[in-house]
Amino acid sequence: MPKYPDPDMLQGTLDMLILKTVASGPIHGYGIAMRIQQITQDVLRVRQGSLYPALYRLERKRWIDYDWGTSENGRRAKYYRLTKQGRKQLATETENWDRLSTAVNRLLQTT
Known about the structure:
Layout: H1 7-10, H2 14-22, E1 27-28, H3 29-39, H4 48-60, E2 64-70, E3 76-82, H5 84-108
Antiparallel strand pairs: 1-3, 2-3
């Protein structure tokens, strides 16, 4: 049995996971991936090939914005932050996720 969930299974949740991670304060792309991995105790891993296209998509939707800064290793990096629109979207996506996960749990608990 694989240790990590199928990435296709999580595709619809990636935006929500990124928005939630960025909501805690400015963070660069690599930091987003590491924080998700750390908080989920290595259950979820976001690959760069999924992360950066998602970040660009969220920028285009104006749910996140960024400022340039210097990372811990001295490199120039974009530090992402949530916009007002992003906060609203996060609330909507969290509410939808709560409804969906409750429904799935109900189904799984039936005999």
